[in-house]
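Posted in: Protein Modeling Q&A

I'm a second-year student putting together a small comparison for a lab meeting, and my supervisor asked me to include a predicted structure for Type II secretion system protein H. I've never done this before, so apologies if this is the wrong subforum. The sequence is pasted below exactly as I got it from our records. If anyone can share the structure token output, I'd also love a short note on what stands out.
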Amino acid sequence: MTAHTDPALPAVSQLSVRKGLHPGDCSGFSLVEALVVLAIVTVLTAVSGTTLLGLLPEASMNRATRTIVSMCRHARFEAIKRNEQIRLQCDKGQNTCEVRIKKDNSLLRRFNLTELKHQHFLERSYTTHFNDRGRASMAGTITIHNSAGLSRSVIVRPSGSVVTE
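Accepted answer (user: helix_wrangler)
Welcome! Here is the predicted structure, written out as tokens:
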């Protein structure tokens, strides 16, 4: 009986004798390959890191804006809930925004813009009172600037609604 061999499939004895397939030759990555991968990762990290650093002032500005919007909404909610006037005061000199009960001047909430990582400052002072129906006594705009040249505006409407620009 003769063995049938297919020329497309190598014999089992031929596979074990092929050069380069000895168990000692399969040891993983070479030092050169590992260094190339490390260099590529280093370059990608440096490029993405500098891009992310450029976004920090904008993220900080967004945080300041969201906080002031939250304070305006909090003042309005407290006025409706307590059925009395609540004062929202942003002071340019102290660089702060405060929410206080009008009748006894007790502090409900305070935000100091100088506590943020990047310099933020108010363009001008602004004060309004929210009544028991949530309406603002004086419409106005609270504008914030930072040291990177960015600015955002928080607009308080007579209806008491708050929007940003």
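A couple of things worth pointing out for your meeting: The chain has two helices and eight strands. The helical segments are 12-17, 31-82.
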